[in-house]
Specification:
Length: 102
């Protein structure tokens, strides 16, 4: 089984060919192809982690869609003062499908 650990959106994700991964919003249109930098490559028993060898590795993914995450409600409240504040937040996300690890 071949899989790679890639850096995407400030986090590290474990991906293999055919996986759908949700990342922070990327500046790419749906259908576009992007490359993700590999940090580790596992090919069966062989593990590659040297920077010079990983520079040759390309992890290619195709942008499936741009979407918004679930709403997070932020509430602030102070007792006995009448202060309360409510705010919402939805993250901008991109769903990608890994097409190749070479």
């Amino acid at each position: 089984m071949v899989y790679a650990i890639v850096r995407a959106g400030g986090r590290q994700e474990k991906v293999s060919v055919g996986d759908l991964v949700t990342l922070d919003r990327l500046k790419a249109a749906p259908g576009a192809s992007i490359e993700l930098p590999a940090l580790l490559l596992v090919d069966g028993e062989k593990v590659t982690s040297a920077a010079d060898e990983l520079a040759k590795v390309t992890v290619t993914a195709e942008v499936v869609e741009n979407l918004r995450g679930q709403k997070i409600v932020i509430q602030k409240y102070k007792n006995k003062t009448g202060y309360k504040k409510r705010q919402g937040f939805r993250a901008s996300l991109t769903k990608v499908k890994v097409t190749s690890i070479a």
